[in-house]
Amino acid sequence: MRRPGVTALAALAASSNAASISDVCTVSNVQAALPANGTLLGINLIPSTVTASIVYNATTGRGMGGGATTGGSTTTYTYCNVTVTYTHTGKGDKVVLKYAFPQPSDFKNRFYVGGGGGFSLSSDATGGLPYGAVGGATDAGYDAFSNSYDEVVLYGNGSINWDATYMFGYQALGEMTKVGKPLTQGFYGLSDDTKVYTYFEGCSDGGREGMSQVQRFGEEYDGAITGAPAFRFAHQQVLHVFSSAVEEIQGYYPPPCELAKIVNATIAACDPLDGRTDGVVSRTDLCMLSFNLSSIIGEPYYCAAKNSTSLGFGFNKRSMSRKTHKRQAPGSSTSYQPAQNGTVTAEGVAVAQATYNGPHNSAGQRAYLSWQIASELGDASPTYNTATGKWELSIPSTGGEYVTKFIQLLDLDNLSNLDNVTYDTLVEWMDIGLERYLDSLQTTLPDLTPFQSSGGKLLHYHGESDSSIPAASSVHYWQSVRSIMYGNLSDDAALDALQDWYQLYLIPGAGHCGTNSLQPGPFPQNNMAIMIDWVENGVKPSRLNATVSSGAHAGETQMLCRWPTRPLWRGNSSDFECVDDEASIDSWTYTFPAFKMPVY
After folding, report:
1. Which terminus of the chain is less hemmed in, N or C, by CB atoms within 10 Å?
2. Could you tell me which residues come within 8 angstroms of residue 123 by beta carbon, excluding any fewer than 6 positions away?
C-alpha cells in the first residue's frame, strides 16, 4: 500500500510509456509512490528526505562484481536519480537509499540489484539500466557509499559493530529491495499486483551478497546470478593466510618465479587431459587424480627483474580518492623482485602440494578445501628483502586483516607475523569465525525453499582455476542444498528437481570473476539475458554460453557443462561432450571432520 493522496500522481503516470521522464522524476511523485509507513515492518521512510533529479545521456556501472555481461558498453541512458532515507522503528538510525529509474519509455517492469566486492557493497544504482530495470544501492546505515565494512566493523578493540555486520551481511540489500519494488510500482503508476521482475547479479563478495538474498529474502527475487561467492566467510578468509602458514611452518619461501614455474608446468602437463590441447585445464579433477607435482622438480625457471604492485584479490579498500583519510589497502605495496634463475626444488613443490591439499589440523582431519591444482598460487608469493637478499614471509591482508579485526578483535590492518602459528591455530580461527558470524557473514544456509517455492531461479558460476575463492567451495554449497532439500530422493530425482531452478557451472581455466591470463579459456558474456529468458519466458538453460577472448581459439563460443557433468573432447571434435564421471565428482566432494558443527 502506498501513501494516501496519490490518485492524481498515479493518473499522471498511469501509462509509463506515455509519460515522459520530466513527468515522473519529481519529488512529489516519488513521495507519493513511497510505501506507506507500517506496510514494511520495521522500516519507517522519511518522505522529507526525498530527492529526484534527471540524469541525461549517462553511461552505467554494474557494481563491482557483476561478471562479464555488459562490461565496456558506451551506450548512454537517461534516468531519474532518486534518494530517500529511512530509519528502523524505534532505533533512531538513518539509512540512505538511492535508485536509478529508467525513463518511462525504457522501463521493462524489472528491478535490478548489483553486487559489490571485497568489503564494499555496491554504491552504484545504474546497473539495471541496460535491462530496462530500476536499480538500487544502499549506504547500509554506516555510510557504505564512502566506507568499506572492514573500516567500521569495530567500534574499538574488542567491540564489534553488530549493526553494520548484519547490514553488510544481508539486511541492507534486502531492505533496499523491499522498499524499491513497491516504490517502482508507484513511480510508474503501476497497480500493486503488476509483476516487477527482480534480479540480483554479483561476483566474489557480490556473489556472497546474492546468496544472502536468496537465503534470507528469497521470496523477493525472481532470478539471481551469483559468481564465485565469497561465502563460508570464516573458512574462506582464513584460507588466504594458509599458504603463508605453510611456508612459515615448512621454513621455505619459494621465489615467485619458482611458484609460477610449478603452476605453468602443471597447466602444460594437464592441458591435454580434457581431450584438447589449447592451454586450458578444463578438467582439474583429472589433473588432481593423475598428475604428480614432484615430476616438476629440477625443471629450470627464469624471470627478469621487475617492480610489482600487489593489491590482493578483490578485498582491497575503495579508491583513496573518496576520502582523504583513506588508508592504502592493507598489505598492498610496490616491491622489487630481482632476476630469478634456478630450478624447481623439492621444497617448492612441497609448499605447492600442501597448499593445493588444503588445511588440516594436527590430527590430519580436514578443515577446509583449497584451490584446484593448476590455479595460480598468488597468496603464497613471498616478498624480497633487498637488505638481506632473501625471500621472506608475506601475509596477504585479505586474510590477515580478517584474523586481526574479526577474530582477535583488534583494529589492525594485518597480522605482523605468524610466530607460533600452527595448522591447529588456523583451524581455531576458522572455528571462532564460524560460531561468531554464523548468522551474519557465513552465508551458507542450505534450505532455499522460500526462494524455490516462489519460482526463483539461481544461476551459479565459478572459474575452475579461481586463485582467490576455490571452485570447490561452490560445489560444496550446491551439494549441501541438494542434500538438505532433496535428501529423501534418489540421486537422479534430486538432480532433476534441483536443476529445474538451481544450476551450477564451472568455467574451464577461468580465474576470479573473469578470464585468466595463464589459461586462455572461455567466460560467460550474457548471463543476464539467459536469466531473463529463463524467468520471463520459461527457457531453462541446459548449458551456459561462454566466449573465448584470447589465444588460438579467440572468438570461439563454448556451451559450458552444467554441473555435475564434465567437459571432454573426443577425437577431432570441435566441441566437447558433457560426461558423467563418478571419480571426478568424488574428487570435488569434501567433509570437514575438524569441526563438530556442520559446514555447509
Report:
1. N
2. 116, 137, 139, 144, 145
Contacts of 473 (CB under 8 A, 6+ apart): 229, 231, 232, 236, 369, 462
Strand ranges (E), 130-250? 133-138, 154-156, 159-160, 197-203, 223-227
Number of other CB atoms surrounding residue 524 within 10 Å: 22
CA dist 342 and 14 (Å) reads 73
- Tell whether omega for the bond before 104 is within 30 degrees of 0, i.e. cis: no
Structural element, H or E, at residue 542:
none
pTM score? 0.94
Run of H or E including 79? strand 77-88
Residues labelled catalytic: 204, 466, 512
3-state secondary structure of 206: helix
Beta strands at 543-548 and 522-523: parallel, antiparallel or unpaired: antiparallel
Enter the C-alpha cell of residue 587. Answer: 574428487
Report yes or no: 558 and 548 within 8 Å, Cβ to Cβ.
yes
Q: What tens digit of pLDDT does each residue of 282-336 get? A: 999 999 999 999 999 999 999 999 987 654 544 433 333 333 333 333 445 568 9
Would you report the helix, strand and coil content of the chain in percent, each value rounded to 5?
35, 20, 45
Q: Which helix H or strand E contains 348, and what residues bound it?
A: helix 346-357
Alpha carbon distance 312, 419 (integer Å): 22
pLDDT digits (tens, 9 = 90+) for 97-133: 999 999 999 999 999 999 999 999 999 999 999 999 9
Distance CA 225, CA 460 (A): 6
| Distance from C-alpha of 195 to C-alpha of 456, rounded to nearest angstrom | 14
Cα atoms in the Cβ-side hemisphere of radius 13 Å centred on 506: 28
For every residue of 255-309, DSSP letters joined together read -HHHHHHHHHHHHHHHGGGGS--SS--S-HHHHHHH--GGGGTT-EEEE--EEEE
Calculate the CA 345 to chain-centre distance.
35
What is d(CA 581, CA 567) in angstroms, rounded to the nearest whole number? 10
Residues for the chain: how many in total?
600
Give the separation between CA 30 and CA 101, rounded to whole angstroms: 11
